[in-house]
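User: Quick sanity check before I run a bigger batch. Here is a single chain. Can you write out its predicted 3D structure?
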Amino acid sequence: MSVTIKDIAEKANISYPSVSRALSGKPGVSSKTREKVLKIAKEMNYQPNALARSLVQKRSSTIGLIIPDILNPYFPEIAKGVEDEAHSKNLSVFLCNSNWDGNREEAYINQLITNRVDGIIIFPTSPGNISEIRRIAGRNLPIVILGSSHVEDVSVSISIDDVLGAKLSVAHLLNKNYKKLAFIGGTTGLSSVEDRLTGFKRAHEKFGLSVEKKMIVESGFTFDSGYNAMNDLLDKKLVPDAVFSENDVIALGVIQALRTRGVRVPEDIAVSGFDDIPMASMAGIDLTTVRQPKYEMGKMAVTELYSILMGESDLNINKRLVLEPKLIIRKTS
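Assistant: Done. Predicted structure follows.
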């Protein structure tokens, strides 16, 4: 049979309210009384009733994390940062995988609200879904958006400077005398994709070069989409000197397509990615890429959310945090 606060109060010969305050860390009891209560609670192996506590505090000590692709190594690194920081703050995390499906994303938001989460951290499937996310969540639930700075009506957004990251990578390729570049990227309309395409174009402008529209390919975000997009370019005799891939997983698909067709990387066609996922640095891949502080982004998301939950930050702060990317040059360029 589980031990209750009443049991502790009887053994300590202290009033029920005093025991409750001592266990919850609230003022109104002396340090001596608090120590006595905590000692007895430990001896009796007292386990607080999380549901009852959440009803009193109007908090569940749980948060939701919604990511779009659990198979993409970029997102588990974020999730690890979220979980590690949440654990340090005694928060539990509900992890949801939307699979780049807006309807599934909305369903998860509804489920998280039903489960009374204290806040939601989400990498949205598209910018257009953010207003719907806020509508579903209501005005009193803090929301942290990852991967986009072009958002309104959320508590906090955390992203990197995607334009700068793409400019650094493309400028590196152009400096290496690769002049005919292809852009292979995910679904246009997603701000990170649009910003990386903008950076791609601005780097060309800086070198006095134009971008061929037919060399810009919308591929999706997966290994297969990169593989298929590269093969389509080659089948159409659109052969670039180098490929800037919007993420590392796409880049791996591009490299596989090139190697399958006997094209050498980087001697014939160079390839660069974006994200710096763990396998990018593996021997035999050695992918030139743009590093994002993924784990740190996850931790930062929880820190910002927790600050709101503790009343240290305004729920409607609409705070934008933009982190700096770093170019990592390896053997594919």
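The chain has a mean pLDDT of 89.

User: Great, the batch can go ahead then.
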